[in-house]
Amino acid sequence: MAITVGYTDPGPGEPSLTDLIERSAELKGELVAFAQSARFDRWLTPALLEAAGPERQLEEGDAIRVIDHFILRYRLPGGATVVDRFLAGRRDLTASDREMLLGWRDPVDGIFEVQRKDGDAVILLNLVDDLEYRTYSNAGRAAFRGAFRGGFLHACLVPVRSAGGVWLVSGALSYYPKSSAAQIAQAALQLATAQPELVFRNPEKIEQGWYRMREDRAAFVEFCGSDELVVPPAEAEGRLNAYYRHRQEAAVAEQSDPARRRRLQGLDLPFFELPRELADSDTIGVIYDEVDGLNFYADYGMLRDLFADPTLAGRRQHQNLLRTYLREESIAPLPIRRLVAAHPETADAVFQKLLRKPEFAWSEHGEALLRRRKTWYFANEPRPGVSVIGDRLSALLAGRR
Known about the structure:
This protein has 401 residues and is of the alpha+beta class.
């Protein structure tokens, strides 16, 4: 059941919806001109050239998408976006303008099914997060001429006001007919899998995701005998492929519909394949944590040996590996916490040698070290490692209109 992101009427003295949409067109025009000014050329031009490819050809719609992405999402040196820079340099903006622009810093990318038209608005169901969006265009209803009930579109939306439940198309629209439902469903599934944060805009999906992840983790532990494995890369791939096949067979067994069971039995799941940077390791750590989910760590066996025998901390190879685990943004605190918990009697000696701080004690300084080295991790709310798709996307994937 999709949740509707509804419309809230403006309060007394606030601009009307019509006024806000008209103003949004003016602000977007000024924002685009600002982004295309010489001050941002060193970042925008490479993005356009990359999109154009070796033939240096770029369709207008694709160029609009690149510019729109650059304005709303691209992180400039220091972490600010173009919207942030625009806001900082425009003291003449009203409070309403600023509220609108601040909302644009959190755009919604999605693949949408057209539910219906309602005056100048179109009601869209996002197949990725399973939420409905009442959507307008600052170009008027003509922008939705190609939107037909049951059809699909790929779009980026921004709020008209930060908490009003009214959305605005940002950038180019791509329309697709009803007949493309199968391809659209696959595209939405790939987007949900690759970017689970898009799914978790829906609070219900966060709760469902935690439930599914706990269920999957329990099945993993039962199948593998532990939530942590340290094995050679080839064995890691074999174990994971066997596990996924086991889960598929369990899903088939639960189906009461014979036709559905035949379809599932005919599926060949893609073989799990480790990235090259992991496949070249001596060992792989496979940890299915109850919060951080399923993760893979290169040369985890060597790191485990270091914590088991702190005299190895004098070896450059072991020191460099631990430094990598502390430094890399792609590595969460999880593996270090695990090893410290498994070897509390030697952890202090390992870090004293690495950091050249004889007074270092993990119980006193460990958490501060992780927070200093892994600020990105602590700045974000934990999210389940399992995406949960909505009923409508499930139906489309199953071929039901």
